[in-house]
Amino acid sequence: MTGMVGDIVPLPESPRPELRFVRISDDATIADFVDLNCAAYGVPIEAGRSIVKEHTFWRDHAYGFVAYKGDQPVATATAIVNGDCLLLFLVATAADQRRKGYADAVVRRALNAAHQATGIRRTVLHATEMGAPVYLRMGYHATGRFVGYLPQAG
After folding, report:
1. pLDDT digit string (tens) for 94-104?
2. Which of 56, 58, 60, 114 has the greatest number of CB atoms lying within 10 Å of its CB?
3. How many other C-beta atoms are found inside a 10 Å radius of the C-beta of residue 68?
4. How far apart, in whole angstroms, are the C-alpha atoms of residue 108 and residue 72?
C-alpha cells in the first residue's frame, strides 16, 4: 500500500446524478458498508459484520457514506477525525460498478462532510494499488510504501 497525504478539502463535488448518498447511521447502511468492503478486500462478510455494529462511532466520530444507484449500494467511503487531520479509510466500490467515478464521488462527499463539521483540511490515507491513481488525481501525494495483510477469504 501507499501512504498518502493532501491538504485538499474542500473538494468540488463530483456530479453523479444517478447516485444517492446516505450517511452511515443505522443497521442497513452499516451492513451495506461492511458488505461492500468485505467483497472489495476479500474478507468474509461474517467477520466484517461481527466487528462493525456500534452506532455511536458512525454518529459521533465518522463521516461515512454509502452511494446508492437506485436501491443498490455501489460505493462507500469514510473520513474520521484523527488529531489534526482526517483519515480516509475503507473506500470500496462494487466490482461490477468500478470505473464509473463512484468511488471519487463518495470520497468527495465523505471528506467534504468531515471538513464542513471540523474545518480540518489535511487528509491522510493508505491506498491500494487500484486506488492510488484516484487519489493522485484528487491532489494527494505519496509519502511512503508499506505492506499490510488481510485474512484469506474462504
Report:
1. 999 999 999 99
2. 114
3. 19
4. 20
